[in-house]
Write a structure and sequence with these properties.
The protein is mainly α. The chain has helices at 2-27, 37-54, 56-59, 65-73, 79-105, 130-151, 157-160, 164-183, 189-198, 204-209, 212-229.
Length: 238
């Protein structure tokens, strides 16, 4: 379990540093250094692809408490395993956000203390309300888990050919392309907690809203997990 926890820590660290780093550093760029929604989306997705092949053989590369919860609800891991994974994931997200904070602290001007925190409401990106944010996060996490639990079945052609990580990463890219303007996209309680806690001094509002990015992804993950557990989406020969 310790090896798995270390792998999950590293994977979540990488996801937060690279994904949120793209949003913060790229978002402050100009000209050739600027990136848009598509660039940020690919940063998150490609981070997952890289970690899927880097730590996947050790821990399965959940790097997301909602994924671990969905896997648990599908009957593919124990409660104690899920808890151990979640602890490592949250710690990895905190470390990733802390490193990003240190890097950004060295910028001479133009940084307002943001670390890619998730949120909703007036003044946040597209100004979507709480209901829109909750629905997006729950549905997006549900679809993300349907992909993850589907392609990691033993009989899945992508699992057999070692392409599951690519499918999962590209799904995360698609989710970000759709949802960045709504919530900044979480579908991952650890990814939201890390930046919200480390950046609380400059953006306390993100910490006050972080509950939604814990509850909504867990709801979506639970529904997907149950559909696999009861056999609705589980392959007969999985």
């Amino acid at each position: 379990m310790l090896k798995k926890q270390i792998a999950e820590f590293i994977g979540t660290f990488a996801l937060v540093l690279i994904g949120c780093g793209a949003a913060v550093i790229g978002g402050l760029g100009t000209g050739a250094t600027a990136i848009d929604v598509l660039g940020i989306s690919f940063a998150f997705g490609l981070a997952i692809v890289a970690m899927a092949y880097g730590i996947g053989p050790v821990s399965g590369c959940h790097v997301n408490p909602a994924v671990s919860f969905g896997v648990y609800m599908a009957g593919r891991m124990s409660l104690s395993e899920m808890i151990n994974y979640a602890i490592a994931q949250v710690l990895g997200a905190l470390a990733g956000a802390a490193v990003l904070y240190i890097i950004m602290s060295g910028k001479a001007a133009g940084w307002n203390g943001g670390l890619g925190q998730n949120g909703w409401g007036a003044g946040y990106l597209g100004n979507y309300n709480m209901l829109s944010a909750f629905v997006f996060e729950a549905v997006a996490t549900f679809l993300f888990l349907v992909c993850i639990l589907g392609v990691t079945q033993k009989s899945s052609p992508l699992h057999i050919r070692g392409l599951a990580g690519l499918a999962i990463g590209l799904t995360l890219v698609a989710i970000h392309i759709v949802g960045i303007n709504v919530t900044g996209v979480s579908v991952n309680p650890a990814r939201s907690l890390g930046p919200a806690i480390i950046g609380a001094g400059s953006n306390p509002g993100a910490l006050a809203q972080v509950w939604l990015f814990i509850v909504a992804p867990l709801v979506g993950a639970a529904v997907a997990g149950l559909l696999f557990r009861n056999g609705t989406l589980e392959a007969y020969d999985a």
